[in-house]
Write a structure and sequence with these properties.
The chain is an alpha/beta fold and about 575 residues long. It is about 45% helix and about 10% strand. It is built from 24 helices and 17 strands. Strand 15, helix 21 and strand 16 form a beta-alpha-beta unit. Helix 1 runs antiparallel to helix 2. The termini are far apart. The structure holds 2'-deoxyguanosine-5'-triphosphate, calcium ion (2 copies) and zinc ion.
Amino acid sequence: MTEISRDEIARVLDEIALLLEVRGENPFKTRAYRQGAEIVRDHDADIVALARDNELDGIKGIGKALQEKIHELVTTGKLEFHRKLRDDYPDGFFELFEIEGLGPKKVGALHRELGLDSIDALRKACDDGSVADLSGFGKKTASKLLEAIQRREHFAERYRLDESAAAAEAILDALAGHPATLLARSAGSLRRSRETIGDLDFIAATSQPKELTAFFAGAPFASEVIVHGDTKCSIRLDNGQQADLRAVSMEQFPFALQYFTGSKEHNVALRSRALRQGLSLNEYGFTASDGSAGTAIPEVEDERGIYKALGLDFIPPELRENRGEIEAADSGELPEPIHWENLRGTFHNHTTASDGHASLEEMATAARDLGLCYLGIADHSKASFQANGLDEERLAAQVEAIRGWNREHGDGLWLFAGTEVDILKDGSLDFSDDTLATLDYCVASIHSSFTLDEKEMTRRLVRAMENEHVTMIGHLTGRILLRRDAYAVNHEKLIDCAAETRTIIELNCNPKRFDMDWRWWRRARDKGVLCSINPDAHRPGQLQFLRLGASVAAKGWLRRRDVLNTRGLDEVKEYLDTPKARR
Ligand code: DGT
Ligand code: CA
Ligand code: CA
Ligand code: ZN
């Protein structure tokens, strides 16, 4: 039996909590499982080993009953209690939670009262009026649910970047471990760091393609085989995502990698450039475009060699979207790339004071362990009551705690005291200027009244930017990828205003958001807007989102000098101490 992982244990506990909630069980019971899942996810020691040896005693928040269940899960690979709960619901039932506006309570009511157990069934019940008739729902809710179902279909078969990256890493490990593999890389939109990913694409160099495609088709991660050929294989993973493998020769490898990295538009432009040199370029190599033997065919050893043969600097995958990168590579003007190692700290992070899952000390320690020099704490403000936002008093106490940390541990990791203050409906802020003046910096974000029109929304954000204390705007458009559209804003105006008021725009690199979108950053940087790459971390592990953030920043043509958190601690302190107008 392969050992169950920490994430799987947490997932089972979360699912138990969800199902108990659906059944309307005691909230304390529900909370115990959810809290258990969190502890399992974040615990420092090897919690799987502890559970196996029945040594979970003394871990705060995991009671006797939960200890026994986790032990059962780890030693037998199953949990009877979970299985019994789950048996009452078909797989399609769980998709209901993916509909925006449906939480466990509502799903529970729909299941109990109308017997709904799939999205299809929900759609029918919305259409025939039975949802509208249900107490607690009504006509408006029913039509909102229908819209949400349509939106979900629109996003269907796309996946988050972080989830895709994790799946791809495991598959690459498996491929790399096969004796027939000479080289293996992932390509496609994942390699280009797009904000969402369709299928995964893998290229492997091998002299035994058949062995490799057979291995891929029979691998434990292949839940279904879609196509199985001698050099190509497409499978479906457990979560429904498709993965394509192409097995090529060592000579073809750079060409296949380049071709299947895309984008299609980039490839089209590159091919026409090749044609002007008398070369035709495809996934197998260069050939003379007129078939004549007189044309010199360039020798290519790696992907860089393809670009070099075409007179171009190497174009990093993130930039391959045919948005000017070929011209820039031609004239030596590609942006100096940002690497995640260039990031020295970050500013938008939460703790248990609001809706985070780790204490100030835990977040600070995690940041230090990650090699950062400084960390900004920006918990929610009081208007975000659903996120347990801080009032003035609790904020002051947090500032005290931060100053205390700095006195004792500031030479290892410096904490900046900030807030993620709510921008209210009229563009005023949830804290007074006097309160904001006690902080090192301030992230201002919208968390309410999403439906204002573009003009009002833009005016609201402009007013926030005009505030002397607002260092940066958080998640500019509020989009939740694959779930909730951005609210309407005028990007051009906001970029101009950010430049004028010296307000930073955040690149929120939480993979749920990636907001502001990469397509706008080149314009912003050319107007002189500064960026801050922020993970919006709610638990220590999420500080790692900075890795994705650096790739997405590179995708937006940002250079190191365009990003505040590439600067060292002293420079950042000086920046924050300078009045906005002189920054
Ligand atoms: P995705 O999967 O929707 O997130 O996006 P990609 O970019 O990964 O697209 P995919 O998987 O369909 O194809 C991978 C790459 O293969 C694509 O970026 C460029 C290349 N490719 C696919 N079809 C064509 C085509 O018809 N012409 C050209 N030039 N390239 C193609
Ligand atoms: Ca793809
Ligand atoms: Ca593909
Ligand atoms: Zn926020």
